[in-house]
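Problem 3 from the worked examples.
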Amino acid sequence: MFFSAQKNLEPNRMAMYFTLAYSIAFVILCVLYRNFFNTLLFTFISVMVVDAVASILARIFRIRKRLSIILSLLICFSVFIWGLVTIIPTAFTQLTDFYTLITDIIEKRAWEQYIQNNEQLLNMLNSVVDFIKPSINQLASYLLRVVASQVPGALTVLFFTILGIIYVSVYSRKIVQVVPLLYPKKCRQHVAGFVEELKVNMRRFIGVITLNAIIVGFAFFILFKIMNISYAPLIAFWAFLTNFIPIVGVIFEFIPVFLFSLSLGLQGMLWVIFFSVMIHLAVFVFFFEIMKGYARVNPVVMIFSILLTGEIFGPVGVFFGVPAAVFVVVFYKQFIYPQFERD
């Protein structure tokens, strides 16, 4: 009965049903096996970054795709090792002192000296800080527990992610060619078009987000180095990490940066706020300029996607929000929209 019904299905609708079934199976596997999900997620994002860099190298130096991928892998792993050896250890060693400084600023309510004449604004800020203060303490305790309990799993994820990045990057073209073979022959042409569009949009989307994260992180590092502030590596690393989460990540980034800026005096605080606004406006404009002609993800859809993936997959799931949103947009465009436009 299943096969007879399958014969009567239109190719586009058949491709839609099979894609939906594979997607549901994938989500179930990821929920049941978190290390599997984490490995796939980090491998996928890293491969998209490597592929984007390889495309740039191929256009600039007019070299073959395989050679550009190898050079891209060398560049990406070199940057990763450099960060692992220099920035990340420094950032983590500063974390305890930075947390102590932030809690001290909150306890002393350092912002009150700047807005003594505006009682309404002062009360609002006090209320906001009183609301987030328990969350900051809980976050610190949570991070310590997670780091202590997840080290073995994290090493496993890191090992298989590195292997995945190398093999998937080198054989990405063959993998893309194999995907349609998982579908009935009748609908493979539609699936091939879907996979190609998904790949192009995903690579561009993740590539731009990665570039934005690098720009923001590096900009904060330069600013705080110029201001001769010892927490430059920590703040730069935090800005880089949170900018992988569009829209929502900016809020996570700005809260500790703003609280820290209160210890710099009024002039220093204003400079940090002005700089934060300008750099994010710049990357925002850059993002939409680069994404012209590609799948546009509505910011509301993006926010709900980040919230949903965070609820389903935990803290790491928030990094899956953007790829999931891109998948939904391309899936709708390729399969659902044509059904709505039929006579």
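Problem 4, a separate protein:
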Amino acid sequence: MTRKLILAMAAVSAAYVFAAPPTVVVKKAGAERIVVSVETAGSDAAAKAFKDSLTRNLSLSGYFQVGANGQIRVTGTPGAGVKAVGAGKQVSSSAAFADAKAARMAARQFSDAIVQAYTGKKGFACDRIAFVNRKGSDNAELYTAYPDGYDIRQLTSDGHAVVGPRWAPGKDEIFYTGFLQKTPLVYRIDMSGRRRLLQQFKCLATGAALSPDGANCALILSFQGNPELYILNFATKRVKRLTNTPSASEASPCWSPDGRHIAYVSDTTRHPQVYLMDVATKQSRRITNAGRENTNPDWGPDGRLAWATKRGGLNYVAVMDPMKGDSSARLVSDGGSWEHPSWAADGRHLIASRDKALFIIDTDPEGDKPARLFYNQGNWMNPAWAR
């Protein structure tokens, strides 16, 4: 792997021995769920695809358990009309479809409607996940799929490395770092496969993350020396430098929901830690102390920050209130090789990578165990959830 690729992926190592302080580790036994019986009719491929996708998405939501004699019954014929009835409510769908792919999309929409009606929460079944399949030291391609693990789609076929995909807020567009010109640069690609270079920067450009209003892009540039944190304004095409660390490198910026702060990684202390930048004042402070390495931050819609933390030789996924720092931190996974957590739109679930596979993590203290996205062979990594 090239040095630039290592920088782009923020894979910084350290040579210090760390003793982890006491931390609350979540032991997930699973809370009580509303039982839903999915009793839809039809034996053709489309009807089966609808039932399988609906079952999978309801189970992933964290609120329902699919089983017999449920408080809620889903009946009807997919493609002609289905309804969920129980607990004093009814949700209906009359979506028609001609094939299994369209049936799965109808099932996702119906699942989100059931979640909204019975819990008042936003579902995530229709929100795609972008990720990377690493095929060699300098060869990785960009893919998307839905949270139920179906309809995997390959977006790039370049034979060059792809890292760090991030969705544009509210759009079917992904920003990512690519190596088409050998030097890492930021590209944007839509679901039709149309790709554009963000801007022709000198030297390294990586880690692009759009502000919530879509007006600015945080990214890491090295044209003035070592990798530093900048903001690119789309209207003026000008960049503003936020950090000045001559002996360190920055990586992995992400915005707060209100657009006032950016969390990012810096190895100023010779091992990576998460810092918080006030965009208006350019004042920065370190917010992680526990853990030998703290990387891959992602700021969720409810204001919590998720990141990967290395403790005792293992990587965990942790969440916290970034304004309170480590005092509010909580581990939401067991120990392993966890990397790149990314929040779902519901503010409860994360997608993260571990052992060449992708998993959905329920951050509720009594939530479900991590659920593997799919079992296709590959080295799946760098997930990002659209929201």
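Solution to problem 4. The chain has three helices and 29 strands. Confidence is low (pLDDT under 50) at residues 1-30.
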